[in-house]
Design a protein that fits this description.
single chain, alpha/beta, Rossmann fold, 2 domains, 9 helices, 41% helix
Length: 224
């Protein structure tokens, strides 16, 4: 394990848990009755971004009548939480990767765009408490991903220089945020394809976390 990598920071949705399709399902269920022309492709474009920022953008674009953006935020969050608790499953390789990194002595954290309550619920559902030094929500920052604030705050709370962190991400917004924070990035795309330009900018791209082995951290190089 390279001495300069001291911490691993994980995104959550679409990386640790198979929740991206459930987010899409919840958003479609909540917005279609309002006449918003929402589909899975539009939802996919918002993957990795903060829910309030996505809904505010949609409100500017589609201008539905009735519920406020805050009301819709609460409705989508309630529905996706219900779906995740019912049907969400850990993605392949999650526990093995964290076990490997824990044995190597790395500190670990989750930095997700999801609200704190949902992060806590997923950590409990997947039994990740033993691995996590802390969790942090981008909802607590002034701006969400691709702004680097969530990752910088997480590194500060871990007591680790951002340049000594590796981030595991599944979405272009998160990859950009991590690189703007000065961190190395391993991409494990879920709703995006490996050849998506936003995914390819990562230092390394894996098909699944099952493909991860710690020697990879020795070979991380700055993406072109």
């Amino acid at each position: 394990m390279p001495a300069d990598i001291q911490a691993a920071i994980f995104d959550m949705d679409g990386l640790l848990i198979d929740s991206e399709p459930l987010w899409q399902e919840a958003e479609i269920a909540c917005f279609r009755p309002l006449g918003v022309p929402i589909d899975r492709d539009l939802c996919r474009q918002s993957a990795g971004k903060r829910l309030d920022e996505v809904i505010n953008d949609w409100h500017q674009r589609f201008g539905w009548q009735g519920p406020s953006p805050d009301d819709m935020h609460d409705a989508v969050l309630a529905e996706v939480t219900r779906l995740i608790m019912q049907r969400g499953q850990a993605l392949p390789g999650v526990h093995d990767t964290m076990t490997c990194l824990a044995k190597a002595g790395l500190r670990m954290a989750i930095a997700s765009s999801s609200p704190p309550a949902l992060i806590d619920a997923v950590v409990g559902k997947l039994s990740l408490e033993e691995f996590m030094d802390l969790t942090h929500s981008g909802a607590l920052e002034a701006r969400g991903k691709p702004d680097p604030a969530a990752f910088l705050t997480t590194a500060r709370k871990l007591g680790v220089n951002p340049g000594h962190c590796v981030v595991f991400e599944d979405a272009p917004a998160g990859i950009e945020a991590a690189q703007r924070a000065g961190m190395q990035v391993i991409a494990v795309p879920s709703v995006f394809t490996p050849d998506d330009p936003g995914i390819r900018r990562a230092n390394r791209v894996l098909t699944t976390l099952e493909d991860f082995h710690p020697e990879m951290l020795n070979t991380l190089i700055t993406a072109e």
